[in-house]
Amino acid sequence: MLSRLTRPRAVAVCAVPLVALLVTAAVAPLPFSVAQPGMTANVLGEDRGTPVITISGAPVRPTTGQLRMTTIEATGPDASVRLGDLIDGWFRTDQAIMPRDSVYPGGGDTEEIEKHNTEQMEQSQDTATEAALRYLGRTDDGIEVDLELADVGGPSAGLLFSLGIVDKLDGDGSDGDLTGGRTIAGTGTIDADGKVGAVGGVALKTQAARRDGATVFLVPKAECSDARSELPKGLRLIPVTTLKGAVDALVALESGKGSVPAC
């Protein structure tokens, strides 16, 4: 038998499950990760005393300036992210709340994810080398490239690795540096044909880039709007879709001749 409740009492009764739900949400782990700007590394330089790019089988030119690959740091797959963390991160510009599946798409435990990320990085390094040598027309020259970068996983450094190889072997094609002496940062995957792909987390990566001295940031064109959303003052965005386009843009920026694309 049902009886009719007065409105105040009905509200009170309905509030009980709502309060319980909020309390549960506040203390229960949620399927999200909290990300923030991570480390950057100059691919033209050294990492822990070891050159990031080592080339044998061809003369290597000295370079100036920097080409900095960028990263984000995220809470681990086993970390407990709760409602308070999400609310805090939502209102901060130096953090982002991301679905855990987008940060760790393969799932699995920490060891499995680290293995997957390492494999992606190694594959990215091989592809970046192939893309650079194809761009230079030197795939048959017997050139060997070794890429070393500790504690970084995933494929998003591909573009910067390729640019670093091009700069060390050919520069801007006229005995100048691709960087023009600047600190250039960026992100983007790359395939063997030199096509640049999106990576995610670009708004945080622009902050990492500016923090470490970059004045120019190469961003996959598809992610221009994300990169603009929290763009630090003093950082210029250059959208790219291919390795050739990235090289052409840097040459135009260095020489002051030709157009430099903008987001």
Protein described:
With 263 residues, the chain is α/β, with parallel strands linked by helices. It has one domain (29-255): 2-Layer Sandwich (Ribosomal Protein S5, domain 2), CATH 3.30.230. It has eight helices and twelve strands. It has helices at 7-27, 83-90, 100-103, 110-136, 158-169, 202-211, 224-229, 243-255; strands at 32-42, 46-47, 50-51, 53-56, 66-74, 96-99, 144-147, 183-186, 189-190, 196-197, 216-220, 236-240. The chain has a six-stranded mixed β-sheet. The protein has a two-stranded antiparallel sheet with strand order 2-3. Strand 11 (216-220), helix 7 and strand 12 (236-240) form a beta-alpha-beta unit. The longest helix is centred in the middle third of the chain and has 27 residues, at 110-136. It starts with 6 loop residues before the first helix and ends in an 8-residue tail after the last helix.
